[in-house]
Specification:
diguanylate cyclase activity; diguanylate cyclase; 17 strands; five-stranded parallel beta sheet; Rossmann fold; Diguanylate_Cyclase; 3 domains; EC 2.7.7.65; Alpha-Beta Plaits; alpha/beta; GGDEF_dom
Length: 473
């Protein structure tokens, strides 16, 4: 096996596997002219090592190799956790429909009929590399470690449910024929629409996949671009059905947003295989997106109390301070600390302490409401941020917060009766002299330190009270 491995690639690294040297050379010429880095191999033997060294972004393999088939290549790629999202494309002889269908049945990401024009090959390569880049971005997002109390959630890939598939054709008659042929071969739900009534498709539930009849009209290509650019359908799988072997039109369709192309007209068996393969990929990506959204949300939340955490609090206070500098309105920072909390843990156990924290958080949040935010920034310490307020209003709210904790003792499972809990609060309120054209807020660290000094004063004065630190601003 021969290979050409370098440390850098211009557009991406493509591994070409073929037992015939002239085929490999031809593909290399086509791909390197488009600034792709090409690695070559000729057989299955030794491929695992070559994959580890080359780390390709895409694999183009002959349907048959001297010691294996394209399906074996796909299995080797999938066996490497770092490469399992790398697309593997089979190259089959032209007019060999059985080989094309077999490749799709074996789970190959696509199959190209050889010989093919440069434009079509490069359009498919671009399309597949864009899809892999999307997957890589999601993997990177899900692997990042959030800061704060929350721990990152793992991505759980669950079995796919029947998908919603829409058929979009020029005539209702063609749509009915396609629907009837597809319904006999797949478990997904089907709906038929005509291209002239796109609103009907967009007004209902968003399809997981749309099978689009693509003719020579530029309007069909524009339709693909329109669907891919819409917020509702940008993650929907688009499968174009083209009459004949029009490579230029197929290339345009891929560049406009089609995820897969069926050349040679409608073939129910091929269309179903492409739907199944593309929908399975979409399910994985959707679940990765959902995991990423959960991870981002959890990175701002304290898992015990459900309040925001320190990371959120610091970002939120910074935004409040900048808004105040622009508007000239006042804002306030409070640091609150439950009194004698260590004694609660020592006397009743840490689970009881957690219950007190959770209940105290709920009372604080309910009292503050929409006036600002409440965050847990330490063991028993909370931060409250208020925008567009005065010192008088903030002080009134701080006293109400103290009362919300004091007025009703906390019930604990192992305590003979509810136990009294109090809280101490340090407050600093500030107001710029005038809106700042430079938008320079008061130093946040200094304000928080002042609030902490006021909190210490409240503790020293006997706890269960508010102390105010005067602002120089």
């Amino acid at each position: 096996m021969q290979s050409t491995v370098t440390n850098m690639s211009v557009q991406g690294t493509i591994l070409v596997l073929d037992g015939t040297s002239t085929n490999r050379i031809m593909l290399k010429v086509q791909l390197t002219a488009a600034w792709y880095h090409v690695v070559q191999g000729e057989r299955l033997h030794g491929l695992a090592g070559l994959l580890r060294r080359a780390k390709p972004d895409l694999v183009l393999t002959s349907q048959t190799l001297p010691d294996g088939v394209a399906a074996d290549v796909k299995k080797l790629v999938m066996a490497d956790p770092d490469l399992m999202d790398v697309p593997v494309v089979a190259i089959a002889p032209q007019n060999d429909k059985a080989a094309r269908l077999k490749a799709l049945e074996d789970g190959l990401d696509d199959v190209l009929a050889h010989p093919f024009k440069d434009t079509f090959l490069l359009a498919r390569v671009r399309s597949l590399l864009r899809a892999r880049a999307d997957t890589q971005d999601l993997k990177a997002g899900n692997s990042s470690q959030p800061i704060g109390f929350a721990e990152p959630a793992g991505t759980l890939i669950t079995a796919s449910k029947p998908a919603r598939v829409a058929v979009l054709t020029h005539s209702a008659r063609t749509g009915a024929i396609w629907q009837n042929a597809l319904a006999k071969r797949m478990r997904h739900s089907l709906a038929v629409h005509t291209s002239s009534n796109l609103q009907g498709l967009l007004s209902g539930p968003v399809p997981d996949a749309i099978v689009v009849e693509v003719r020579a009209s530029p309007a069909d290509l524009n339709l693909l671009a329109d669907l891919k650019s819409r917020g509702a359908t940008r993650h929907t799988v688009l499968i174009g059905i083209l009459e004949g072997e029009k490579a230029e039109r197929a290339s345009d369709a891929l560049d406009r947003g089609a995820d897969a192309i069926c050349l040679g007209g409608f073939c129910a068996e091929e269309t179903v295989l492409r739907i199944d393969n593309q929908v399975a990929r979409k399910v994985r990506l959707d679940q990765m997106r959902a995991s990423l959204r959960r991870g981002l949300a959890e990175s701002w939340v304290d898992p015990l109390t459900g309040l925001h955490n320190r990371r959120y609090a610091m970002r939120a206070m910074d935004q409040i301070a900048h808004r105040a500098a622009r508007s000239g309105q006042g804002f306030a920072v409070m640091l609150a600390d439950l009194d004698h909390f260590k004694a609660i843990n020592d006397n009743f156990g840490h689970s009881a302490g957690d219950m007190v924290l959770t209940e105290a958080a709920a009372r604080l949040q309910q009292t503050v409401g929409t006036a600002g935010f409440v965050a847990r920034i330490g063991g028993e310490e909370f931060m409250i941020g208020l925008s567009d307020t005065t010192q008088e209003k903030a002080l009134e709210l701080a006293r109400t917060l103290c009362n919300s904790i004091r007025r009703k003792p906390f019930k604990l499972p192992d305590a003979p009766c509810p136990i009294p809990v109090t809280i101490s609060i340090g407050l600093i309120a500030t107001k710029p002299d005038a809106p700042s054209l430079l938008h320079r807020p008061a130093p946040l660290e200094k304000l928080i330190k002042s609030a902490d000094t006021a909190l210490y004063a409240a503790k020293t004065a006997g706890r269960d009270q508010v102390r105010v630190r005067q602002s120089a601003a």
